[in-house]
TrEMBL record:
Lineage, highest ranks first: Bacteria, Bacillati, Bacillota, Bacilli, Lactobacillales
Membrane topology, from the record: Multi-pass membrane protein
Keywords: Cell membrane, Membrane, Transmembrane, Transmembrane helix, Transport
InterPro entries: Aquaporin-like, Aquaporin_transptr, MIP, MIP_CS
Protein name listed in UniProt: Glycerol transporter
Pfam families linked to this entry: MIP
Length: 239
C-alpha cells in the first residue's frame, strides 16, 4: 500500500505543479522555460521524496516499461496505474478548484482591466494545462510523442540502473529539455496520466485527442523497455 500511496502523491505533485504553472500564470504568458522547469523540478523532487518507496514512476508508460523489464510485477503495475491516474485527476481537480481564487488576484484583474471572468470562461480560454495538437496533425503528434517518450523512458531505465548517479536530477532535467522541444507541437506529455487528467475537465478537442497521447506514450514505453534491456544487460541494480 505504501508504494501505491507514494505513486499517488508523486503523480499529484507532478501534475499539480506542472499544470498549475501553466494555469496560474496565464495572465502573464508563461515562457516555455518556466513551464518545462516546473514539470522537471516537480518530477525531480517527487522522485527524490518517494523513489526509495515505489521507484518513483508517476507515469503509466514508465510503469509499463518497468514491468516489461521485470523490474515491477504485473500485479503492482495495475496498482501503480490506478494510483497514478487518481493522483493526476485529483491534481487537475485541485488546479481547477484554484481558478476562482486566481481570477480574484491583482495580476488577473490588471490583465483584464477590471473586467470580470467566470471560471468556465477562463477554462474555455486558457485551459487547465492540457496537452493538444493542431487539427489534422494526429499522425505527426503521435510520432513526436512516441519518439520523445521513448527517449525519456530509455534514459530513466538506464540511469536508475547506475550507482552513484543523481537520477532524480538527471530525469527531471531531461523531462524539462524534452518539454521545451515538444511544447509547440504536442505540449509534451510523455505521460498518459498527465495527458488525460486535465482533458477530463476541459473536454472538447483536448479529450478527443487524448487517445494519441495514451497510445503513443505507452508504445514509447514498450520500445524503451526492449532497448533498455539491451543496454542494461549484465548491469547490476543500483543500490
Amino acid at each position: 500500500m505504501r508504494k501505491y500511496i507514494a505513486e499517488f502523491l508523486g503523480t499529484f505533485i507532478l501534475v499539480f505543479v506542472g499544470t498549475g504553472s501553466v494555469v496560474y500564470s496565464a495572465a502573464t504568458t508563461p515562457s516555455p522555460l518556466t513551464i518545462a522547469l516546473s514539470f522537471g523540478l516537480a518530477l525531480a523532487v517527487a522522485i527524490a521524496a518517494f523513489g526509495h518507496i515505489s521507484g518513483g514512476h508517476f507515469n503509466p508508460a514508465v510503469s509499463l516499461s518497468m514491468a516489461i523489464q521485470k523490474r515491477l510485477s504485473w500485479t503492482e503495475f495495475g496498482g501503480y496505474v490506478i494510483a497514478q491516474l487518481l493522483g493526476a485527476i485529483v491534481a487537475s481537480a485541485a488546479v481547477f478548484g484554484g481558478v476562482a481564487t486566481y481570477l480574484k488576484s491583482p495580476t488577473v484583474s490588471q490583465a483584464l482591466s477590471g473586467q470580470k471572468m467566470t471560471v468556465s470562461q477562463f477554462v474555455n480560454l486558457a485551459g487547465l494545462g492540457q496537452t493538444n495538437f493542431a487539427d489534422g496533425e494526429a499522425l505527426s503528434a503521435f510520432l513526436f510523442e512516441f519518439v520523445l517518450t521513448f527517449l525519456f523512458i530509455l534514459v530513466i531505465s538506464i540511469v536508475t540502473k547506475l550507482a552513484n548517479v543523481p537520477a532524480p536530477i538527471i530525469i527531471g532535467l531531461w523531462l524539462a529539455v524534452l518539454i521545451i522541444v515538444a511544447l509547440p507541437i504536442t505540449g509534451g506529455a510523455f505521460n498518459p496520466a498527465r495527458a488525460l487528467s486535465p482533458a477530463i475537465f476541459v473536454q472538447g478537442k483536448a479529450l478527443g485527442h487524448v487517445w494519441v497521447y495514451i497510445a503513443a506514450d505507452l508504445l514509447g514505453g514498450v520500445l524503451a523497455a526492449f532497448v533498455a534491456n539491451f543496454f542494461n544487460k549484465d548491469v547490476p541494480e543500483a543500490a
